[in-house]
Amino acid sequence: MAATMAALAGTRVIELAGLAPAPFCGMILADFGAVVTRIDKVKNMSTIDKLARGKRSISVDLQNPQGVAIVRKLCSQSDVLIDPFRPGVLERLGLGPEILLKENPRLIYARLTGYGQTGCYSKRAGHDINYVSISGLLSKLGRKDQKPTPPINLLAD
What we know:
Layout lengths: L1 H4 L6 E5 L4 H11 L3 E6 L14 E5 L5 H12 L3 E4 L5 H4 L4 H7 L4 E4 L16 H8 L22
């Protein structure tokens, strides 16, 4: 097990705080030995985040040019960026792949989108209930001859 835990030793990951898929991905990478730094929002309420295991965390204001500069500097020295936002958000902030990859060509820019990179829904935001509904799975949940019972969060994520 020790060999597995160190499989990603020395790998530096920047995780932008987001909903479940991105923090889960960052947690798994940290479990395998990567150094994961989560970029939290400045005005984030303090909560116990079960997906923060093994991560460092800093708060950065991405609406401020100085905050964007901090993230760019971190990405220039990192191996992976986990992007949890809907398409176009990081581009509008000056943190899109064309900028960050120019500064660090070896950066793995991991975009976690609900509907993939192409296709009719690719530019839309999505959440667990959307994915469960579109897949048809929601119609299978609940009692016979009653409305579907929405699942607890994270069934599709």
